[in-house]
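Notes from hallway chat w/ T.B., transcribed later so I don't forget. T.B. wanted the structure written out for a chain they're using in a teaching module, and asked if we could keep both sequence and structure tokens in one place. Agreed to drop them here.
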Amino acid sequence: MCTDGNPVKAPDALKAGIVDQLIEGDLLKGAVAFAREIAGKPAPRTRERNQKLGTPEQNAPIFAAARENVRRKQRNLIAPLAAIDAIEAASTLPFEEGCQVEAKLFIDCLYSDQSKALIHVFFGEREVAKVPDIPKETPTITVNSAAVVGAGTMGSGIAMVFANAGIPVLLKDADRTALDRGLTTFAKTMLRRCIADATPSKPSTSDSR
């Protein structure tokens, strides 16, 4: 969960021990009933909640598989691997030592060049979506297909963006050699992504002179 950042459904969170109870129906009544149920009972501290932890020998292949998955799907990113290191430290070291390791890993990631770059990308992506003088309520046009003129590095890259979005795209170039080179680059890049994701994927493309 820490490495991929994907949302977790409530039943899965309950099963994993992240939440204590799910409430069906009236939320307020359910919350009050749960509060009364646990009132006066000792609340276990985080360091004491170790029922789901296995032995280092049992966990070793889990961590190894997680690291391999991250190296394959999130290549060259340091934060996902640091998250695994922190979790491993939490499950193998005394609580205080595990917290110290996690704090150091966090600081290392926070002040890394990758962190600065990703923060820049985060805000940059949001800024480019804002077009001055165009109101938010302006209706948008649905794009059902696209054509890219020029099969060079930029043109092939733009075509890949459309294909990744599921939009059929026509890649056009006056030079057949340039077109073939662009399509080859396109196919190789998409193949690498498919292998990295370990899921079948086929871009929707057409070529024309």
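Follow-up for T.B.: The chain is about 55% helix and 5% strand. Might be a good example for the class.
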